[in-house]
Amino acid sequence: MNTIIGRITKNAEINTLKNDRQVVNFSVAINDSYKTKQGERKELTSYYNCSYWISPNVAKILTKGTLVELSGRISSSAWIGKDGEIHSGLNFHTSDIKLHSSGKNSESETKQNAKEETKNPFAGDTDDDLPF
């Protein structure tokens, strides 16, 4: 299991496959920096094409600019484009999504939607007599 943290580059899209199964597709940019031997700071951005199969409803909160923490599996792909050039990409098969900040939505709306989407292991537990 891998974890990445980055910003969504455009609003998520829901795609329906032939068997009526739905997948949420979105991309994430991860910024990193390092210093060269000469002491010069270099910026590096990696892009991941992400897929989420668990619930299509999460697409409405995955908006451009949202900072997300994703858990899942990384894979890579390569292909020859119509231009004859070799292309490659990084894919992230997402199993868990945590929101850290909102994009276009207001923060409170995003938090509310995230609560609706997140699987809570204590859902239905109404014991309000907590000792702390």
TrEMBL record:
What residue spans carry the Basic and acidic residues bias annotation? Answer: 106-119
Q: Please name the Gene3D superfamilies in this protein's record.
A: Nucleic acid-binding proteins (2.40.50.140)
Which of UniProt's keywords are assigned here?
DNA-binding
Q: Tell me the Gene Ontology biological-process terms attached to this UniProt entry.
A: DNA replication
Q: Out of the domains of life, which is the source?
A: Bacteria
Query: Which residues does the annotated region (Disordered) include?
Result: 97-132
Pfam families linked to this entry: SSB
Keyword flag DNA-binding: yes
Q: Does the keyword Phosphoprotein apply?
A: no
| Protein name, UniProt field | Single-stranded DNA-binding protein
The record's InterPro entries line, in alphabetical order, gives:
NA-bd_OB-fold, Primosome_PriB/ssb, ssDNA-bd
Question: From the UniProt record, which GO molecular function terms apply?
Answer: single-stranded DNA binding
